[in-house]
Amino acid sequence: MADHPVDEKLPAPKMATTGLQHVAAMYAGVVAPPLIVGAAVGLTSAELTFLTGACLFTAGLATFLQTVGVWKIGARLPFVNGVTFAGVAPMTAIVASTDDKKDALPVIFGAVIVAGLLGFLAAPFFSKAVRFFPPVVTGTVITLIGVSLLPVAFGWAQGASPDADDYGSAVNLGLAAVTLLVVLLLRRFTRGFVKQIAVLLGMVAGTLIAVPFGVTDFSPVADADLIGFPTPFHFGAPQFQLAAILSLCVVMVVSMTESTADMLALGEIVERPADERTIAAGLRADTLGSAIAPLFNGFMCSAFAQNIGLVAMTRIRSRFVVATGGGFLVLMGLCPVAASLIAVVPRPVLGGAGVVLFGSVAASGIQTLAKAGLDKDNNVLVVAVSLAVGGIPISAPEFYHAFPETARIVLDSGISTGCVVAVLLNLVFNHLGRGGREAADVTHPMETGEDLAAPTGKAPAAS
């Protein structure tokens, strides 16, 4: 029997180029947290480069755990793991509350270790929530993942920093548009391997086109060392402070929730549905990768949703392609010059490619919703309210400004809030009490239901 496409091993050249495409798609997301946290700590340029390389290295190790797997660790799906952005706000808060900034990173590392180990122990119990994720829930969450990522692409399209003079300039937006156009043309008029690596080729073309406009910066290559290794505990031995540990344990719960949704989404896309065992193994890889990361000066790791879009668009489902990408990440952590080559790609070029990648995730969610029975008004309500609540951080970023910082870690993640609301509403409308009645008994999603006849005794509608 032929291997499932997820377990297929492609020819080496194809593995290398498609693996590199995954790295290019997630590079900006991996390096942003260490740059933000490192700047808050007040690290020098050399220390920032070291911290960034360490996060690339640990992302590669976590990706190996997730894709190749060992024992009961790893979903063995084409998942890229990297530094979760959910931890940026609490980590910067830890930095702000630390009197001696030299202790800030050791305190963060200690909290990540504890949160990772606790998450590892909780993974098999957390995975049992998979039965609460029917198509009406997974489709909603997948759509929210894509929609939540689109603002990231739009921000990249405008430039590297909102404080820059050229942020949102016609040149930056033009480069993003040209990159998007190149990707679309390649997808439309080419076939085979070239079509599959259209995103990578689009980014190469966009980078070259950006050179005459002075947007491409080659200084990272010139300044990078050839060889570097993330020395264990380079910034000091980990310190364990209760407040920091509690804060990052909350982040770990958020990260595990999002990773569960991501695994369900990817399982649908690659046609190998993620069951309870797969999710437990995937969460073990996330949490163990997080617990190990501080040893090499890295932060908390989780699955990267943007790479789901790449899998959905290219239809290359091999987990070994992503494992190859993990190899590139490890190489970049050991060879700063290699890492700097990806850093050369201008942010607007990444933005143009991101529109395709993240939009593909949302489209996959819509495809799942098409199988979710939206002819039933109960399901319409579940989707409508969940998308609305999940869209709050996107459409009204300051909506939860009066809430405590710990609560905002959860509330500011539209994926997490939308997921929780979808699960709860699905239980209420489709499983509890009279919620399982057929959609034919409800004439309109907003009907009060006070004058409806009693259930006819039919079996509850599928959810």
Automatic annotation (TrEMBL):
InterPro entries: NCS2, UacT-like, Xan_ur_permease. The chain crosses the membrane at residues 24-44, 50-71, 78-98, 104-126, 133-157, 169-186, 198-215, 235-254, 320-343, 349-369, 381-403, 409-429. Its main location: membrane. It is a multi-pass membrane protein. Residues 439-463 are annotated as: Disordered. Pfam families: Xan_ur_permease (PF00860). Keywords: Cell membrane, Membrane, Transmembrane, Transmembrane helix, Transport. It comes from the Bacteria. Coiled coil: none annotated. It is found in: Cell membrane. Belongs to the nucleobase:cation symporter-2 (NCS2) (TC 2.A.40) family. This is Nucleobase:cation symporter-2 family protein. It comes from Streptomyces prasinosporus.
